[in-house]
Design brief:
It is built from four helices and six strands. The protein has 200 residues and is an alpha+beta fold. The chain has a three-stranded antiparallel sheet. It has a three-stranded mixed sheet with strand order 2-6-3, with no helix packed on it. A hairpin with a 2-residue loop joins strand 4 and strand 5. The protein is rod-shaped and about 130 Å long. The chain starts with a helix and ends with a strand.
Amino acid sequence: MKEKSKDKDKLSAQAAEDAAAEESVTAEESAAEQAQSGDDVLDREALGDEKYIEALEERVGKCVAETMSAKNIAMRLQADFDNYRKRNASLAEEMKALGKSMVIEKMLTVLDNCDLARKYISDESALTGFNMMERQILDALESFGLKEIDAADKDFDAAYMSAVEREKAEGKEGKVVDVLAKGYTLNGKVLRPASVKVGC
């Protein structure tokens, strides 16, 4: 009877040890799963110091990697946005310059007609008023960067002038003898070359 009781006690003790060991393994596995799944709480007691530190290091590594990835994405997006903004600003400036040059080019015909009309005005007071009006138009266009090409009596320059005629002129070979139509530049670029008669 006593032997049976002792055997029972041994079995009970063994079962208790097995249950405790199983609980410990289960707790460690659960804590390890928590660490891997990225839960906020780590059970230090269940993991033990070494595994707890490993789990923390792993979590810190993941956080650093995620932070670097997010930072790289943010930097790329910022660079893309900056490039987009610069392209749009550049395109807007080009469109503005194109619109301005188209309007001013149309106004050059008005200036040409002013030169022609001046020849037919005989009244002095009318001519004064006409010149003032033409000056106002020129001032407005010059404020946008329009400038007349100074061609009269200058050496012929193909970059700014277009030779329409050649004329015998002693001592004026290669020089502009007469300006047939004024030329203009807009912000330093040739908008319309001057049509000239060149001496030969």
